[in-house]
Amino acid sequence: MKRILVVEDDAEIAGLVTLHLSDEGWTVQRVATGEAALESFAEGSYDLVVLDLMLPDVDGLEICRRLRTHGDYVPVLMLTAKADEVDRVVGLEVGADDYLTKPFSVRELVARVRALFRRADAFGQSGDSTPERPLEADGIHIDPAKRQVRVGGRSVQLTAREFDLLHHLARHPGRVYSRMQLLDAVWGYTHEGYEHTVNSHINRLRAKIEEDSANPRYILTVWGVGYKFPDRDEWRVER
Fold it and tell me: pTM surpassing 0.70?
C-alpha cells in the first residue's frame, strides 16, 4: 500500500487532501510544519510527499532540498498559493517532480498523484531488469541508470522531469511528439490547457544543454507539431 506524507499548515486544505487521498486506498500521514515533516521522513519511508511551499517554519523549498540529499528518491508534489511562474520554477529546480497552484480541484490532485506513482513504479520495474545502456549522440551523453547527463564532457544538472523529458525524446530520435503526447508520456496525464508546462520545461532544458538555446542542437522544434530529438542524419558537424 502506498504511503503519502502530506505537509500542509492550512488545516482545511490538509484535511481535504488527506480525506481524498485516503479514499483512494493510500495510507496518509499529515503534518503541519517543516520540522515535523523532516522528523516523519527520518522515522519512516514514504512513496510520495505532498508539500506546501509556504510553511510556518522551514519552507517547502528547503524541505525539498533536504529530501533530495537522501539516498532514496521520493516523488514530491508541491502545493503553492503563488501564481508567479518563478516560484514554480524554483520548486522544480530544487527537485520537486510536479506542482499544483491553489486553489486546485481534488480530481486533478488525485490524477497528479496517480501519475507520479506510475512513473515511480515504471522506473522501479526497469531497475529490476537489465539496465538501459547510456545514449550517445552528437556530443551528448545520457545515462538512464545514473540519471546523469553530460554535454561535451561537461556534467549538466537536470531536475527529474527535465531528465525524463530529454531521455524520452532521445530514445526516439527523429520522432516528432506533440505537447499533449509529451504530457502523456512524461507527466502521465493529458489535461487540456497544460501544454504550457511542456513549453516551460523545454525552455529550461534548452538553457541547460544547448550552446545556443535560440538555435538548438538537441531539442528541435517542428513548427505546428511539437518537438523532437534529431536522428543521425540531422547531427551537426562538430565545431
Answer: no
